[in-house]
Design brief:
Length: 351
């Protein structure tokens, strides 16, 4: 078995214009001071990272690694969540997602989609240069507006959406395969890949592509009322990244899973800082260890109540407490003996 790496922290929720959150060196020092050992880097934030340079320059990649190493940190994964979202956008969300793109392609959905694909291609090369094995992203969505089947969906609508999603992603998956890096889709509401069934629909259409893998985040499953422990049993071989994010779901007589259009604070389902919600992380870390999860446990902090800096401060020891140093021998080895085939046959009544 393998001991999970960590604790790591996703920097996207903390990057900002004020120190120490406005440069890679400064935010690395901050994260290391809290006890983190790895950082997941958002590739869209130029204050922290230049994706184009990383794809093209070994020197730049050495500089990034060196900056982190000075603080005792490693890169866990690069993230293209925002760019991955733009690989497939239903027109209903054009205005909402336009701000994720480079200014030059805003207002032009076709150019925006091409830009997003190119961003993923750069991420494949950058991840390879940095020696990374997995990459975190979103799938994007064409079918999401039709999630609830009213009005009734016309025959073939969802099939066409997933066929097109697969067509768009297959060249990207092949580029990541060439780079030797797994694409870890964060299965997430708002994405066409939002649960196990929708992931399998996509996987079938990309020919069970070996690089079409998963980022496991139990918070999204708790809010959908999906069994997040059984999910690990089903998909552990495909899980290549892990967000430690908590949530709580407290339905009442007025609202449930859909949230009644309320702000996060007033929803029945809410994201919380690790340890403040209902996710059973002890069971999750046990399953991940038993299945030889090869990667990092990375805090993704989102909470509608607690201050982010407090969540970050508490997150490192929380993850550290849950990481299981796996056994290097069986607990009952002291009672074991050498193989004796004759004795075994006698014990079975065969001789």
């Amino acid at each position: 078995m393998k001991t999970i790496q960590g604790p790591g922290i996703f920097l996207a929720q903390f990057a900002g214009d004020a120190a120490p959150f406005n440069s890679l060196d400064a935010i690395a020092g901050w994260a290391a001071g809290l006890g983190y050992k790895g950082v997941q880097i958002p590739t869209w934030d130029a204050r922290l990272f230049d994706l184009q340079k990383a794809a093209e320059s070994e020197t730049y990649c050495d500089e990034v690694r060196g900056t982190l190493a000075r603080h005792g940190l490693q890169i866990t994964e690069l993230s293209t969540h925002l760019q991955g979202q733009l690989v497939a956008v239903h027109p209903a969300y054009d205005a909402g997602f336009d701000g994720f793109a480079a200014p030059a392609v805003r207002g032009n959905p076709a150019a925006r989609q091409q830009w997003a694909v190119q961003q993923l291609m750069l991420a494949a090369r950058a991840s390879s240069r940095l020696g990374l094995k997995a990459h975190a992203t979103f799938s994007g969505a064409l079918a999401w507006p039709y999630l609830y089947s009213w009005p009734p969906r016309p025959p073939g609508l969802i099939d066409e959406a997933f066929d097109e999603l697969a067509r768009r992603w297959l060249p990207i998956l092949n580029a990541f395969d060439d780079a030797g890096v797994d694409v870890a889709y964060e299965v997430h509401p708002g994405e066409d890949l939002h649960d196990g069934v929708s992931y399998e629909m996509f996987l079938d259409r990309v020919g069970q592509h070996p690089r079409a893998c998963l980022l496991y985040d139990p918070s999204h499953f708790l809010l959908q009322q999906l069994d997040y422990l059984a999910y690990i049993d089903h998909y552990h071989a495909r899980i290549k990244a892990f967000h430690v994010k908590d949530a709580e779901f407290k339905p009442n007589g007025k609202q449930g899973v859909y949230g009644g259009f309320q702000p996060w604070l007033n929803r029945a389902g809410r994201f919380r800082s690790p340890g403040d919600g209902q996710v059973d992380f002890g069971a999750i870390f046990s399953k991940m260890a038993a299945y030889d999860y090869p990667g990092w446990a990375v805090l993704e902090w989102e909470c509608c109540i607690k201050h982010p800096e407090d969540g970050a401060r508490e997150g490192a020891p929380f993850i550290d407490r849950h990481i299981i140093r796996v056994a290097d021998r069986a607990f009952d080895d002291f009672a074991a003996g050498d193989v004796d085939q004759s004795a075994n046959r006698r014990m079975l009544g065969l001789d």
